Amino acid sequence: MDMPQPEDARRAARRAEDTARRAEDAAEEVAEHPVFEGLARAGFVVSGLVHLLIGAIALRIALGSGGEADQSGALRSIASAPGGPVLLWTGGVAMIALALWHVAEAWFGARQADGRADAAQHVVKTLGKAIVYAALASTALRFAIGSGSSSEQQTDSVTAALMTAPAGRLLVGVVALVIIGIGIYHVVAGVTRRFEKQLEGRRHRTVSRAVTVSGTAGYVAKGVALVAVGALFGWAAITADPDKAGGLDAALSTMASLPAGTVLLILVGVGLILFGVFSILRSRYADM
């Protein structure tokens, strides 16, 4: 059998490189297209609406009413409203576009990283956002077709599956630390107003104060809620009981049972509403 010649191999490599470059150029054109950018910005609106509803449900819990203060509770409320399924379909598509936009940002950021630690950190953080938005899109689309399930049940089943794995309690403990770390990051981002970097290039004087207030309070409140969720996962790891782990709804309900918990839950609920306001403002003023 004839062996490939070095020149043939070089030609094949050049063709593959040209094909990859054309694919990358096409992906960049799509990511920069106004229609795709508009869909991605609409994803921020959907995320904001979900946080508004979660915050409102948290306030209802604090005032003694029922409700499921998490993504599934918020999406179920949308699904039950007139035209809700259509809104969920539209929102799911918008969230997919936003997730893909973050993937593109991570990809092109990695191409330009040149080994810099700060650039690599940005890529990892951006990919994490893409995963979060993709998960929210999947949940929204499931509720749109009527097959959505409780976040609490999903959390319990995932935790139980981790518990059955080798070193399962350790894995659940690691999950707890990761969630707590993300929560602390949100608190720090709110206090230091680091979130304003996401708005560079498109900020406007008339919304500056609204963005600052809603972003600061929203990030801190969401961070507190995430730390509470992580604490529940940590307790599940310590007690080896997957039922002790819970999502946001369980964390907020536990928060309400603490001394002065009602006041704390009201503050967190208001903060989550403000985070929703910030997300909606970000849909227009985000630097994309």
How large is the radius of gyration? 22 Å
In helices, the fraction of residues equals over 70%
Q: Which class best fits the helix and strand makeup?
A: mainly alpha
The fraction of residues assigned to DSSP E strands is under 5%
Query: What sort of overall outline do the alpha carbons produce when their principal axes are compared?
Result: globular
By DSSP (H or I, 4+ residues per run), the number of helices equals: 10
Q: Provide mean pLDDT, rounded.
A: 80
Low-confidence stretches: none
Domain count: the total is: 1
- N- to C-terminal distance: 53 Å
Q: What is the N-to-C order of secondary-structure elements (H for helix, E for strand)?
A: HHHHHHHHHH
Largest sheet: none
Number of strands: 0
Domain DUF1206: 42-109, 127-193, 217-285
Protein name: DUF1206 domain-containing protein
Transmembrane segments: 42-66, 86-109, 130-150, 170-189, 210-238, 258-281
Region (Disordered): 1-26
